[in-house]
Amino acid sequence: MNAVSVYSDYKGKVSASCDVLVIGSGPAGGVVAKILAEAGRDVLLLEEGPPYGAKDLGQEASDTLRRVVREAGMRAARGPTFMPTMQVIGLGGGTLINSAICMRAPDFVLDKWAEKSGISALSSEVLTPHFSEIEKFWNVELTPDAVQGERNLRFKKGCDAIGISSQPTPRNVKNCKGSGECFTGCRNGAKQSTDVSYVPAAMKAGARVMTSIRAERIVSDGKRAKTVIGSVVEPITWRATHEVEIEAKLVVLAAGCMATPVIMQKSGMDGEWVGRDLGFHPGLALMALFEEPIHPWQGATQGYQSLHYLKEGLKLEVLWAPPSVLAARLPGVGHAFQANLLDYKHMAPFDVIVAPEFSKGRVKAKRSGFDPDIYYALDQRDIDRLMRGMGVLSDIAWAAGAREVLPGLHGIPERLRSREEAQILKTKQVKATEMITAANHAFGTTRMAKDPKDGVVDEWGRVHAMDNVYIVDTGIFPGSPAVNPMLTAMALASRVAKHLA
Ligand SMILES: Cc1cc2nc3c(=O)[nH]c(=O)nc-3n(C[C@H](O)[C@H](O)[C@H](O)COP(=O)(O)OP(=O)(O)OC[C@H]3O[C@@H](n4cnc5c(N)ncnc54)[C@H](O)[C@@H]3O)c2cc1C
Ligand code: SF4
C-alpha cells in the first residue's frame, strides 16, 4: 500500500498522471475514491490540507480551528447578517470536525428535489442501497444512553414533557467515549472521519493520495479536461511553494460547495448556475441554565435531536462546542461575564437550524487567491421560522427544569427568568442584524438539473458542458436536504462513482 504523500515529500515541481483524479477528501471525495479504486481504476486523490492526527487536535478551539478550518476559522458570509461558516482544510474535510450525525434526506425532500431538477432518480428507492452500504461501512449507530450525558438527556426530558418526538442521533462512530470534542476533532479515534475510514480503504485498493496540493485550474481541450494545474501548499501558512501538473482522463470535483465553483470559475467553466443557488441551514442557539450541575462537556457532542417540526423546515438539536466558542454567546462584561463563565457547568445549549425557503446566496471567485467571496441574504420569513424554533427550544428548556434561558439575541433580555418572560421569544420579531447565527451546512452552488439551462451537472454528476468532469460534493444538491447533509452527499457520490466504475 502506498503512503499518503505529505508536504515534505515534494522537492520541486510535481507532475503526475492518473485515470481518475478526485479533488477533495471529505465525505463525498472519500466515497468516490474508495469505490473507484476498488473497481480497479487508477485513482489519485488530491487534498489541499495536510493529514492531522490526535497530536494536532486540542480542546482549545482557537488553536485547533486556526489550523484546521479555512481562513483560520474566521470565514463568514456577507449580507444583512454576519454569518460565520466553517469549511475544513485537511485530509478528511468536514468529517474531521463535524458532529458525525448521519441523516438520510427524507422522502419529502427527495420528492421536492426530483420535481425541481427534473431528475426522477432522486428518490429513496434509488438511494436506499447507497445509504445502507455507507451506514454499514461507516458503523452508523444511534447514540447510546451510556454516552449521552446529562446535557443530551435533558433535551429528551424536555421534548417528552411537551409532547414532541425526539431521538438519539445516528452517528458514524466506533466506541465513542462521549467526550464532546467532535468540534475540534476526535482524539479518541472514535469518529470515523474519512481520513481513518474511506481514505485508507481507497489506498488499500490501490489509490494514491497526495495531500498539501491545491487544484487551481482545469485545462481543457474543448469539452474534455486534460490537465489539472495547481500548487503545493505549505501546511498552516498555506503558502504555495511548488507547481503541480496532473494529467487525468477523468476529473471528479469533491472540493466542497465553496471551493468547487471557484475552481470552475478560474478554469473558465463559468456557466450561468456556477456559484449560484448557495444554500445554508442557518442556526440559532439558546443556553438553558439549570439549578443543578449538568456538566455539559460530558456526553456525545450532539447526541439528541427532534425531527418533530422537520416538515416545517425546523430541526431541533442539542449542541456542544468548546467553551471559548460558546463564550461568545454569553452576556455581560467584567465580573458579570466571569460569573457567567463560572455557571458553565449548569448550562446546556440547544439549537435550531432552518431549511430556508426564501433566503438566497452565491459564491464567487475573488480576483486573487482561492478563498470564495460568499454572499447570503437571510430573508425575514426564514428568520421568523427560526424564531419559532427558538420558542420551542425555550419550551423544551423550561420543561426540562431550566431556571433561566439565555437567548443571545439583541433586543431581548439577556436572561429570561420565567416561562412568562420567555414568551417574548414567540412574540418579538427579530431582525437579521439582531442575531448571531452560524451555518455549517452549505450546499447548492453547482446544482443538479436535467436541463443544462437549469443547473450545472446532470443526474450522474457530469458537468453538462464537459465530457469528463464530474462533481459530487454538496454543491450538487438541488435544494436544502432539511437534515444534516453529509450522508446524502455520500449517497449521491456513491451513485455517481458506481456509474463511472
Ligand atoms: C462544525 C461542523 C459540524 C457539522 N456537523 C455535521 C454533522 O454532524 N452531520 C452532517 O451531515 N454534516 C455536518 N456538517 C457539515 C458537513 O461536514 C459538510 O456538509 C460535509 O463535510 C461536506 O462534504 P463535502 O465532501 O461536500 O466537502 P468537504 O467536507 O468540505 O470536503 C472538501 C475537501 O476538499 C478539499 N479542497 C477544497 N478545495 C481544494 C482544492 N482546490 N484542491 C484540493 N483540495 C481541495 C478541502 O480541504 C476538503 O478536505 C458539519 C460541518 C461543520 C463545520
Ligand atoms: S464525542 Fe468524543 S469520543 Fe465521541 S466521536 Fe465525538 S470526539 Fe470522539
Q: What is the CATH third-level topology name of the largest domain?
A: FAD/NAD(P)-binding domain
CATH class of the largest domain: Alpha Beta
Biggest β-sheet strands, sense, barrel = 7 strands, mixed
Low-confidence stretches: none
Please provide a brief summary of the model.
With 501 residues, this protein is of the alpha+beta class. 26% of the residues lie in helices and 23% in strands. Helix 1 runs parallel beside helix 13 (486-500).
Describe what this molecule looks like in 3D:
With 501 residues, the chain is α+β, with helices and mostly antiparallel strands. It folds into 2 domains: 253 residues, FAD/NAD(P)-binding domain (3-Layer(bba) Sandwich); 161 residues, Cholesterol Oxidase, domain 2 (2-Layer Sandwich). The chain is 26% helix and 23% strand. It is built from 13 helices and 21 strands. The strands form 5 sheets. Strands 1, 2, 8, 9, 10, 11 and 21 form a 7-stranded mixed β-sheet that branches. Strand 14 and strand 15 form a beta hairpin. Helix 1 runs parallel beside helix 6 and helix 1 packs parallel to helix 13. It is globular, with a radius of gyration of 22 Å. The mean pLDDT is 96. The site of iron/sulfur cluster has 15 residues, from loops.
What is the topology?
Blueprint: E1 14-23, H1 27-38, E2 43-46, H2 61-68, E3 76-77, E4 83-84, H3 107-117, H4 124-137, E5 140-142, H5 149-162, E6 167-168, E7 170-172, H6 198-204, E8 208-210, E9 213-221, E10 224-233, E11 240-253, H7 260-266, E12 276-280, E13 283-290, E14 304-306, E15 314-318, H8 323-326, H9 334-342, E16 347-354, E17 360-365, E18 372-377, H10 380-399, E19 402-406, H11 419-422, H12 424-427, E20 442-443, E21 469-471, H13 486-500
Parallel strand pairs: 1-2, 1-11, 2-8, 11-21
Antiparallel strand pairs: 3-4, 5-7, 6-14, 9-10, 10-11, 12-17, 12-20, 13-16, 13-19, 14-15, 15-16, 17-18
Flavin-adenine dinucleotide (FAD) binds at residues 23-29, 46-49, 86-90, 93-95, 97-101, 183, 214-215, 254-256, 259, 263, 440-441, 473-474, 484-487, 489.
